[in-house]
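Page 42, continued from yesterday. The earlier attempt failed because a stray header line got pasted into the input along with the sequence. Redoing it now with the clean sequence only.
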Amino acid sequence: MGEPGKNGNLPAEKDLRLFYEVANSIHEIRDLDEMLKSIMNTIKTVFRAEGASVALHDPEHGEFYFIRTVEESQEGNHSRMKYMRFPDHLGIGGWVLRERRSVLIPDVAKDPRFYGGMDRQESFTTRSMLCVPLITHDRFLGLLYVLNRLEGEFTDRDLKLLETLSGSIAIAIENARLYGELRQYAGSLEQENLRLKAEVQARFNLHGIVGSSPAIRGVFSLLEKVIDTSITVLIQGETGTGKELFARVLHYNSPRKEKPFVAENCGALSEHLLESELFGHVRGAFTGAVGEKKGLFELADRGTAFLDEVGEMSPAMQIKLLRVLQEGEVRPVGGSECRRVDVRVIASTNRNLEAEVKRGRFREDLFYRLHVFPIRIPPLRERREDIPLLAEHFLERYAKKHGRPQTGFTPQAMDLLCRHGWEGNVRELENEVERAVALAREEKRIGAQLLSERIRLAVEKDPAVAGVSGTMREAVERLEQQMIRECLKRSGGNRSRAARLLGLTRQGLLNKLARYRIEP
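This time it went through. Structure tokens are written below.
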């Protein structure tokens, strides 16, 4: 491919050759591991570097992990390096994650950001480095490293060339994930599907939802009415109430339970990517569309499609979703023909779609297509009787998961849990219990001192919630005032909406506002 110029810059023809070889690897090699091996070898050769690596980001565990590295003198360590992990706040990688910027470091020994932990584990010495973020559709996938220039130093032009390549590599990695190309990490997809189906069907039955309060029993009653049908259901509820769990209950107890349940969060993706995820695309539909891809509706054919946060859809996507609901047809991005699908649609939202229609943010015809059978999931503060059941359920789960001996809560701890506001609902409670289990270590019961400070202080400082003094009637009145203020705040001062949240008539709320002299 020719030698670099004396100033260390890569000639233009070498740049083109690099792009050509990387593009060939992306389009011709279907296996992700082999594709990255080819790309990293090419990069290492062209940049005349000792090593090249890709480290993907695992935000759930706060870590980076290597999926491919090529080192001239450390080939024997390759298989071990491939699976190594390190915390995502450390070193150059942590800086690139925070800043979302590339970096060129001619001498890592003089850079205080450098973390030498990986070198020590691998008996490798990093001297110089290029590190570029792998980003696609505003999603941070990981890092691309080039290590130790063998002759001369890395240049700004090297960095710019690597930045240009990173976009194609990031798209290739994301596509490989979407198409299930990570076979070496997932095993046999068919066997995994069967295992997951058996596990999910055993777990998600009508009695798998923890709760016995009147509010949750009312939801059970509604679920039973539509479980045996294919009617469109709109699940409404605050964030963290478990809307997807209820959608899975509907699917895995329905006649469609043997067919796929496919979920998509409509608020997590850009309009372009969401269109591809829902409707699929044909090869060549856009840059990076290296093959045909089925969308959610085709994948869920004869099964159930769950559209989470449907209120976040753009107007253009609302029109396309309306066609699916009306005609039962989808047209892939870039395609010319429509395809028939038989899908039960369950949608969810934490917004008031009726209000969004009045504001002109949501199509009225789509609203009525989705609002065929609405089910409202009550927030945790409206089903406080279920808190002990949920807390014990999560305690059992996480004590078993982490190998801890916890068997229950002290009365003081349970009292605090029952009186907390839980703005994050069931998800917040679950996280709180897992945190307490981690802190408890060898203690058999979760005490109040193991709960978050915000939970302890919030109850101690708020007599309206605590209700620990005065008569029962006074305690009830303080609780009523607290709930009224909370609902008025959530509804932006809208009294009709606040009354619905409280389960009151509008006049009933007005009477209480006057009685307690509360100004909305």
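Notes: Residues 156-178 form the longest helix (23 residues).
Reminder to self: strip header lines before submitting.
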